Amino acid sequence: MSATLSTTSESSGATPPLSIIRDQSAGGLSWEGRDVTLLSENDKGQLILDLITSKEPKEKVGSGCSSDVYKRMYKGCRYAVKLDNGKTSLTYAEREAAIGPLLDHPHIVRHHGCAKDYPQYLIMDYIDGDDIEEPLVREHFTVTVPDETERRLNNCKIVGSKARSALAYLHGRGYVYRDLKGSNVRVKIVNGIVVNFTLLDLGMVRHTKTLSGLPPDQTDKERSDLPLSTSLMEELKGVGTAATGRNRLSRFFQCCSGFCNNSQPQPKSFELTICGSTPTISPEMLQGIYTTKADSWAFGALLYFLLEGKYPFKGKNILENLDNIRHQPLVLSDSLPEQAKNLLVKLLSRAEDVRPYLAEIEDHPFFVLEKPCLGQELTDSLSVLDEEKLQ
User: Fold this and answer.
1) Range of the structural domain that residue 109 is part of
2) Other CB atoms closer than 10 Å to residue 32's CB: what's the count?
């Protein structure tokens, strides 16, 4: 007997309860972490003012290519405040500030928007959890390790189900995420069981021409309007100096779209068509023309990472990694369950007509848990989570 994970409907604007075995937790607190209400304009302004003027050391909880994130308590609730660090174009921050408050999904970080007088500060729910790329966290997932395989596999299924639901929700509203990777998600693990998943960082999200992420409509093909992503630029350190690496990478991308022939006119800014991160970037993204199926590939790469403990097509440096994505065959461990292999082969297919939209795989048998609702183990883990929130 098996139990299927409950999921959010991608076609409805409402957000139904999203729990594996129950809809509400002790004390009226949601186990998804949404224990705060939306802030009013006055509250947003006061929160930022308190952060700026406080004499106490600011608690930095994250730092990325384009922003720094600080944790802040306000009226008894925890918030994350993202501040642009000036290293990249404001396009990222502006897009996240515009799109974030429009979304309502239990596994996408909730945005409260910016205070009117402090537009450079973006306020979000504070998400308590871990980066799945951290070695100690990775141990809770990798199923190729012959130890507690059933628990690890269930954790992969839980994260996979929630990540799929969040991305399909975006697609159903006309958005493509474009930069899915381990460092852009957070998981909460209690007693070895995943009890929460949240998708972070909406700076790379792009609205497509259509509001559908479902087949057979292919009119959502878009050309990226963002510069070569900063995460890719950071990885150029592995292929020489930044200037040399950038030239080599630019040449590589030109070859991807057939611009190696000098007799052909080259785009003035070919790199403007590329965004994403090398571990999860899709083959068509390298050519600058893509649909929401680019997220399907990235989801497959993330799921592969969870199951195998490493990303697929990994190379010695960024150029080899990208070349592997275009040409190398997919290698799967023999120990992976057949349902996992079946799903990964589809998601990591270079043929877009074979690769499914994420809305199409909601009922894939891979997402069925190995035990009915994980039994008492998950019940105990959720109870511990409730107690932590009430403290």
Assistant:
1) 32-129
2) 23
Find how far residue 250's CA is from the centre of its chain: 26
What are the structure tokens assigned to 328, written together? 């190398």
* pLDDT tens-digit map of 308-321: 999 999 888 888 88
- Residue 18 lies inside a defined structural domain of this protein: no
CA torsion angle 147 151 153 158 (round to 10): -160
* Residue 246 near residue 236, CB atoms below 8 Å: yes
Same structural domain, 198 and 97: no
- The answer to whether the peptide bond before residue 135 is cis (omega within 30 degrees of 0) is no
What are the angstrom distances between the C-alpha of 154 and each of 193, 211, 365? Answer: 8, 33, 13
Q: Tell me whether residue 310 is in a domain.
A: yes
Point out which residues pair with 83 in neighbouring strands: 68, 121
- Beta bridge pairs of residue 329: none
Residue among 129, 128, 194 nearest 155 (CA): 194
pLDDT in tens, 39-96: 888 998 999 998 888 888 888 888 776 778 999 999 888 999 998 766 655 567 777 8
- State both tokens at 106: 């239990």
Q: Which H or E element spans position 206?
A: strand 206-207
Among the candidates 129, 161, 177, a domain finishes at 129
Q: Where are the alpha helices (DSSP H) in the chain?
A: 41-53, 91-99, 135-138, 149-172, 230-235, 242-256, 283-286, 293-308, 318-327, 338-347, 375-390
Residue 130 is given by DSSP the state B
Residue 61 inside a domain? The answer is yes
DSSP for 352-389 reads TTTSPPGGGGTT-GGGEESSGGGHHHHHHHHHHHHHHH
What pairs with residue 189 in β-bridges?
194
Terminal-residue alpha carbon distance, the chain: 37
CB 180 within 8 A of CB 280: yes
Into how many domains does the chain fold?
2
Of 117, 64, 59, 70, nearest to 92 by C-alpha is 64
Query: Which strands sit side by side in the sheet containing 118-125, from one edge to the other?
Result: 59-63, 67-74, 77-84, 118-125, 111-115
Write down the residue that tokens 């309502």 correspond to: 104
Residue 27 contacts residue 35 (beta carbons within 8 Å): no
* 291 lies in some domain: yes
